[in-house]
């Protein structure tokens, strides 16, 4: 079990294992947040936080919402808003212990234009 948390610790996320790869997306929001995404099936992710400890943001088609800590502002993850056949959650891998990210493959996603991986 791995844990990621926001800066103040009010929002904690538990995942079962190290991700196989992480994604660096160049869309306008991901660039500004400075995130690297690790994807997991939603059923495998446990978010531990009081309901009032989180806030969220979505835009465009509002298919996902970005969740951040209301206290320290760190983006912790994104959640799908619409029901999907295989629900998943994107966990901000920058909130893991940095040693976990060592030697992970970083995939570059062109979220700004084509929505295709560039590698």
Number of helices: 2
**Elements, N to C (H/E):** EEEHEEEEEEHE
Shape: globular
Low-confidence stretches: none
Give the termini separation. 29 Å
Major sheet: size, sense and barrel closure? Answer: 5 strands, antiparallel
What is the CA-based Rg, rounded?
14 Å
Number of separate strands: 10
Structural class, by secondary structure, is mainly beta
Mean pLDDT: 95
Helical residue percent band: under 10%
Strand portion: 35-45%
Strand order of the largest sheet: 4-9-8-7-6
Tell me about this structure.
The protein has 119 residues and is mainly beta. The protein has two helices and ten strands. It has helices at 28-33, 98-101; strands spanning 2-5, 12-15, 21-25, 37-41, 46-48, 54-57, 64-69, 75-80, 88-92, 105-109. The strands form three sheets. The protein has a five-stranded antiparallel β-sheet, with no helix packed on it. Strands 1-2-5 form a three-stranded antiparallel β-sheet, with no helix packed on it. Strands 3-10 form a two-stranded parallel ribbon. A hairpin with a 6-residue loop joins strand 1 (2-5) and strand 2 (12-15). The longest helix is centred in the first third of the chain and has 6 residues, at 28-33. The protein is globular and about 35 Å long.
């Amino acid at each position: 079990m791995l844990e990621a948390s926001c800066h103040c610790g009010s929002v904690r996320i538990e995942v079962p294992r190290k991700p196989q790869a992480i994604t660096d997306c160049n869309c306008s929001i991901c660039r500004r947040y400075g995130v690297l995404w690790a994807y997991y099936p939603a059923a495998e992710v446990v978010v531990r936080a009081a309901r009032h400890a989180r806030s969220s943001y979505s835009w465009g088609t509002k298919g996902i919402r970005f969740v951040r800590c209301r206290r320290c502002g760190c983006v912790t993850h994104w959640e799908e808003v619409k029901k999907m056949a295989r629900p998943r959650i994107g966990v901000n891998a920058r909130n893991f212990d940095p040693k976990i990210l060592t030697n992970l493959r970083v995939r570059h996603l062109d979220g700004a234009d084509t929505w295709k991986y560039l590698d």
